[in-house]
Amino acid sequence: MLDIQLLRNDLAGVAARLATRGFALDTARFEQLEGERKVIQTRTQELQARRNATSKQIGQAKAKGEDVSAIMAEVANLGDELRQMETRLEQVQHELNAFLSVIPNMPHEGVPAGKSETDNVEVRKVGNVPQFDFEVKDHVSIGEGLGGLDFETATKISGARFSLLKGPLARMHRALAQFMLDTHTEKHGYTETYVPYIVNADSMRGTGQLPKFEEDLFRVPRQLGDEGETDFYLIPTAEVPVTNIVRDSIVPLEQLPLKFVAHTPCFRSEAGSYGRDTRGMIRQHQFDKVELVQLIHPEQSYAGLEALLGHAETILQQLGLHYRVVKLCTGDMGFSAAMTYDIEVWLPAQNTYREISSCSNFEAFQARRMQARFRNAQGKPELLHTLNGSGLAVGRTLVAVLENYQQSDGSVVVPGVLRSYMGGMEVIRAS
RNA sequence: GGAGAGGUGGCAGAGUGGUCGAAUGUACCUGACUCGAAAUCAGGCGUAGGUUUAAGCCUACCGUGGGUUCGAAUCCCACCCUCUCCGCCA
């Protein structure tokens, strides 16, 4: 959510910056709602003040045993108008809130302007494109050849866009997650967390998945008595439960930055992605991810983003995988982000780079929705900045390892850093 | 699932219809005393919003939402959460 004060003070400026990411801000609508709000709120508060003063008089008069019927008659007339005004004010504020909550974040000045992913800017390439002296297979062929990847059975059990891992591949999947967690906690100073995978709507609103992107989520209905039926949601990323740790709270200055890492499954409906990445485990309804989250002082958030990006990159470097970092352009960024870097790993079978991590600074956008604050040097509560990034997507990392470490005989070499997590196994061969 | 207790400021804890945004204690800040500290004394100390050049004035907030009333922390209803005991359970 943007700061409403910013819209009041510099509506044209906000509209201009939002336009760079392809969002047309309805300034006329805002001005109309704001104007209405102003008039109604002032009037409402005026009436409330009068009611309060009069009621106080009644109390005092009664205490002295005086007759209060005259004052009572006076205040009786107030009631109707006040009720009307209060109702109207509530409506207008709801409308304003709904209007604000679907406005995306403003891109940081350092974000390149552009319309789509073709306008993203490559920041760096790390490592080299691996060369093969045989025809490379994709991870599906490799995995099925090894007897460890079984989409047919997964489809029987659940349906499309699910996968089933067995044997050494399942173990490598676990090894990857362990390796990532250990690296981030031991080398990068993150606190490991175990969090709920099912969350309430408030948490989804806090990080910006709701109200705009409900169709991307899996919703879990629950019955609570007759009326109070509130639905749960499966998390689409650990960003949601982890960032919401600080929702509605004030963090002491000396505790910043808070750095959390969590390994969770992620659930996405993938509505609207029919026909895309249907082969393999690139795009699934359920996948594991190790997520990095930082809750940080506003002055440090951009330095923090670079650091967090580096933490994610470390994993790929340790695994010996070639990748590149791209800075997303204004038109390609997610709803809540002010700046985003994607890390794209090289997949030889597709002869291209594929996203394996996305690291963003949300500035105060999420914090404002969540009322996540810290106590600044002056002792006043101030909004935090929030950062998060994948460190990394486990399923896609497994894909990258299978494809980049394949050998001509169909076996796969286990990267050195994973071997201790796999009982010393050096090569995965067909059983 | 059954029975009971409870949710008030950073914390503890009063307050059961009127001057209560809320006693008191504690923590914290400022000042006095002191060489300094402790103790003591005095003062200050919630959040959000509106309005104003500003000082200020005003509004809302006592788990959440509704209701009764001229007036609600206080009364009524629903819900959420916490705790205790019993049952069940990984």
| Helix content, binned percent | 25-40%
Model regions low in confidence, pLDDT < 50 over at least 5 residues: 224-228
- Residue share in β-strands: 15-25%
Strand order in the largest sheet: 1-9-10-11-14-8-7-2
Based on DSSP secondary structure assignment, what is the total number of beta strands?
A: 16
Tell me the Rg in angstroms.
27 Å
Tally of contiguous helical segments: 12
Broad structural category: alpha+beta
String of helices and strands: HHHHEHHHEEHEEHEEEHEEEHEEEHEE
Question: Terminal Cα separation, in Å?
Answer: 53 Å
- The 3D shape can be described as elongated
- In quaternary terms, these chains amount to single chain
Largest sheet: 8 strands, mixed
> Average pLDDT value?
92
Structure summary:
The chain has 431 residues and is an alpha+beta fold.
Write the layout of secondary structure elements.
Blueprint: H1 4-9, H2 11-19, H3 27-63, H4 69-101, E1 121-126, H5 139-146, H6 151-157, H7 167-186, E2 191-193, E3 198-200, H8 201-207, E4 219-220, E5 232-234, H9 239-243, E6 249-251, E7 258-267, E8 286-296, H10 301-319, E9 323-327, E10 339-347, E11 352-361, H11 365-370, E12 372-375, E13 381-383, E14 385-393, H12 394-404, E15 412-413, E16 427-428
Helix pairs in contact: 3-4, 7-12
The chain binds one RNA strand of 90 nucleotides through residues 38, 41-42, 44-46, 48-49, 51-52, 54-60, 62-63, 68, 71-76, 78-79, 224-228, 230, 250, 379, 381.
Written account of the structure:
This protein has 431 residues and is α+β, with helices and mostly antiparallel strands. The protein contains 12 helices and 16 strands. Strands 1-9-10-11-14-8-7-2 form an 8-stranded mixed beta sheet. A 3-stranded antiparallel beta sheet has the order 3-5-4. Strands 6-12-13 form a 3-stranded mixed beta sheet. Strand 12 (372-375) and strand 13 (381-383) form a beta hairpin. The radius of gyration is 27 Å and the shape is elongated. Mean pLDDT is 92; it is low at 224-228. The structure holds one RNA strand of 90 nucleotides.
